[in-house]
Fold this protein.
Amino acid sequence: MDQIIIENLQVYAYHGVYREEREKGQHFYINAALETNTTLAGTLDDLELSTNYGEVCRFLDGFMKTHTYQLIETVAEKAAEGILLQFPKIRRLTLEIRKPEAPVRLPFESISVKIMRGWHRAYLSGGSNMGDRKRHLEEAIEALRADDKCRVLRVSDLIDTKPYGGVEQDLFLNCAMEIETLYTPEMLLEKLHEIEQAHGRERQIHWGPRTLDLDILLYEGCIMAAEDLTIPHIDMHNRCFVLEPLKQIAPYAEHPVLHKSVCQMYEELPEAERSQDIDCLRRLP
């Protein structure tokens, strides 16, 4: 990925743990590497096709001067998020906040915090088999669209599928979504749980009926196994109701453990699974 580099942007601002730092202020220096695609802008010599580094510098200057935080870790986190939200052509960035006048009574050149942040592509599964199933799914998608830290890129058809797991219950309505997000996997899971709870989701019966079920299937090559979250989804390769809608929007997305595409995993399902009655409804706008 191409980069636009900003080195040692000087800003006088008021950040620090000590009251004197927040009252008198001090100099900070900012280094940033902005990852973006400069090919088209460079070929056509058109600034509108690139990110204006002058505007980024002015944004950072204004941000540093209008906010006050105790930690430069917080300065870096909030500034990085602001840049990614304000400048849509920037995919990722490395941001360093340097504090050469930090109140450390020992000889040093500078103290800094450097972080890397960016947009991450993730694939989600949605399902509902209680109440107005279609409304639950549509409102869940709209809740993600309304969150500025998520971009909903594509949504599959809504499909009727048979329940999974042997619990007697009504048919499910399922879909898959492709999103970009600034959330970490853990933060994204928390967001999905908030949306589920807004629709009355109760986790009482494993594989039981539910008003709304939202799962993270894939998260940009991430492999993790925590107490509350496993990525890739632990059983996605065995589930027709997951793979059927997912292959509509991401047929060549790869499972980072099995190293198989969504299409390959779907084709490896038992024929009885793939031939179940599926009623495609409509693609959401």
User: Anything to note?
Assistant: The first helix runs from residue 19 to 24. The CA atoms of residues 140 and 198 lie 9 Å apart. The chain has nine helices and 14 strands. The two ends are 31 Å apart (CA to CA).
